[in-house]
Design brief:
about 240 residues, mainly alpha, two-stranded antiparallel ribbon, about 0% strand, binds protoporphyrin IX containing FE
């Protein structure tokens, strides 16, 4: 579907900076691949965090794991399947950033030297700190969301995928493609144990993002001047007023 937003105010310019929007109406923002990827990633990360937690802190096995049940095997298996969904999804999402609309690129860059971006960012910080009386309107992500999506989500998801595939290669053996592609991770961090620990820490960084992200998404949906939750379902941003 064509993106009608390109002629409207409040749309990112070539550098991806998005001035706040003046006016109301509806804009088609998130294309279908973005929305499918978002909810598939939510399912994958939820599975990964739950199963990962039990891999790190296993339940006591009564009378010997193998003779009783294969529960731990299923937990690991679910972790690996969800891990591949996350990692392949990330590659597909990056491809879509190259071929999708202007909003598809937003979480891949942060124009930190652009005064317009910094101005919008400062306003958003003040709004979240209860210091600004009114939120500004944005067609795509607000600048603070963009900043956290780049630093907290994207970098962490990449780190978890790379360290996860390296850990997976230990089971597959040094002849596997996983070891050939990701074996260097062990040399970089010194030992397998350290990679386990850092992969584990990565989970908590990701959960930090998820908690603030879900809080902000629901709060903005209620307090903000545009649709938020339904936008990640239908793709359309609906503005509730026409004021600046
Ligand atoms: C594991 C949990 C989650 C992760 C990792 C996650 C990650 C993300 C990312 C990376 C984006 C940017 C999308 C893009 O531009 O490609 C995004 C957007 C969004 N997410 Fe999530 N999300 C999670 C859970 C949720 C949940 C549970 C909700 C609903 C309550 C939600 C609502 C939204 C909304 C509404 C947007 C669009 C925000 C906007 O329009 O600025 N997310 N999320
Ligand atoms: C959001 C993403 C992810 C989270 C939250 C996560 C979480 C975890 C946690 C907490 C552990 C336990 C570490 C320890 O204490 O030893 C773990 C282990 C592991 N993860 Fe992940 N992980 C993620 C992504 C991935 C990916 C993409 C892969 C790749 C397939 C992967 C493969 C593994 C492997 C192979 C182990 C070691 C299993 C074992 O030693 O039995 N993980 N993960």
């Amino acid at each position: 579907m064509a993106n009608p937003s390109t002629t409207l105010p409040g749309v990112p310019d070539a550098t991806g900076t998005e001035p706040h929007r003046e006016g109301g109406g509806s804009v088609y923002v998130y294309q279908i691949p973005i929305r499918l990827w978002h909810w598939a990633t939510v399912a994958a990360i939820s599975t990964l965090a739950l199963t990962g937690y039990f891999i790190g802190s296993p339940l006591p096995s009564v009378g010997g794991e193998a003779s009783d049940s294969f529960l731990f095997g299923y937990i690991r298996s679910a972790h690996f399947i969800a891990g591949y969904v996350l990692a392949i999804g990330l590659v597909a999402r990056t491809w879509w950033a190259l071929v999708g609309n202007v909003h598809a690129r937003q979480i891949y860059t942060v124009p930190v030297r652009d005064p317009k971006f910094l101005d919008e960012l400062w306003w958003q910080v003040r709004w979240y700190s209860f210091l600004a009386s009114e939120p500004r309107k944005h067609v795509g992500h607000n600048p603070l969301a963009r900043l956290t999506m780049f630093f907290l989500f994207l970098q962490t998801a990449l780190f978890l995928s790379v360290t996860g595939l390296a850990l997976y290669s230990e089971g597959e053996g040094i002849e596997s493609w996983q070891y050939k592609a990701f074996g260097w991770v062990f040399s970089l961090f010194g030992s397998s144990q350290r990679v386990h620990t850092l992969h584990h820490v990565g989970m908590w960084v990701m959960l930090l993002f998820v908690m603030t992200h879900v809080y902000a998404a629901i709060r903005e949906d209620i307090m903000g001047r545009a649709s938020i939750l339904s936008t990640m379902i239908s793709g359309w941003r609906n503005f509730r007023d026409t004021r600046e």
